[in-house]
Amino acid sequence: MKLLLKPLHVVYIIYAVIVFLAIMFLILPPIFVASFFGRVKGGNIIFYFLRFWSHTWFPAVGIRVKRIYKHDRKDKTPYLFVVNHRSYLDAALAVQVMRLPFRPLGKIEMKKIPFFGFIYKQSVVLVDRKDAKARSRSVREMIAVLKEGVSILIFPEGTTNHTDQPLQPFHNGAFRIAIETQTPIQPVLYLDNGDRLHAQGFNLNPGRCRVVYLPPVPVAGLTMDDLPTLKQQVFDIMERELKASV
User: Fold this and answer.
1) Phi, psi at residue 149, to the nearest 5°?
2) Which residues pair with 187 in a beta bridge?
3) Residues 103, 120, 63, 193: is their CA dihedral positive or negative?
4) For residues 37 and 39, what is the distance between their CA atoms, to the nearest angstrom?
5) Which label site among 66, 83, 124, 170 has the fewest CB atoms less than 10 Å from its CB?
6) Exposure of 128 by Cβ count < 10 A (0-12 exposed, 13-18 middle, 19+ buried)?
């Protein structure tokens, strides 16, 4: 049976890639125009096109997205979203399910990809983890974005989790920025992305993608002395929910 299904799976993956690229080329011209409106206004416009991309591609390839809210959805406060990172699908899902406006923190290497790299560069806060000065510029840009009322999304593990543990240790960056700007943290979990698209290799599968929005963690009044405690608190909240969702 597996031998019979394998050719069908290959056809499915080819189809998914073609649809992905077709939508990308469709939205590339308006994104190019929007890029002239500046990093904030233009970036917000770009995300509406990216949301169209995601809302079209996911159902086209048989992936069902389900949102699960464990907090009051009426709050419009800018947040620093922290999300677990299991799959390359995480970024595509984020533009569909995260509340606008927001900007993710993204690896600078991705901007080198032809065509996609242009869209990527216009829609994320780029970070070069190998360059200390570049990291500092990224932090300043994120702080400036938050002051404009735009939320930030960070994967605090820093890289895709290839382990058998629910989470990898968190880096300090997200929590430092949250304290410095007094921006509440909202933990968000992508529960099924690792099953839909494995972190190693392009092995896409149809099915469900659950997104869990956990209650925000306030940071009002916290100082840098509280950073380790805050980081551990958010880690424990996310790990506990991940283990309960297995």
Assistant:
1) 85, 15
2) 82
3) negative
4) 7
5) 66
6) middle
DSSP 160-208: ---SSSS-PPPPSHHHHHHHHHTPPEEEEEE-SHHHHB-SSS--B--EE
What 3-state DSSP class applies to 232? helix
Radius of gyration of the chain (CA): 18
User: Given a cut of 80, is residue 177 above it in pLDDT?
Assistant: yes
What average pLDDT is seen over the chain?
87
Q: What is the separation of C-alpha 42 from the centre of its chain, rounded to a whole number of angstroms?
A: 19
* C-alpha 47: how far from chain center: 13
Q: Which two tokens stand for residue 230?
A: 């805050």
β-pair partners for 185: 80, 217
Residues 74-96, buried b or exposed e (16+ Cβ, 10 A)? eeeebbbbbbbbbbebbbbbbbb
Which structural domains are found in the chain, ordered by start? 63-244 (3.40.1130.10)
Distance CA 233, CA 239 (A): 10
Reduced to 3 states, what is the DSSP secondary structure of residue 159? coil
pLDDT in tens, 121-166: 777 777 766 666 766 777 788 888 888 888 999 999 988 888 889 9
Residue 14 has pLDDT above 90, yes or no: yes
Measure the N-to-C terminal CA separation of the chain; round to a whole number of Å: 28
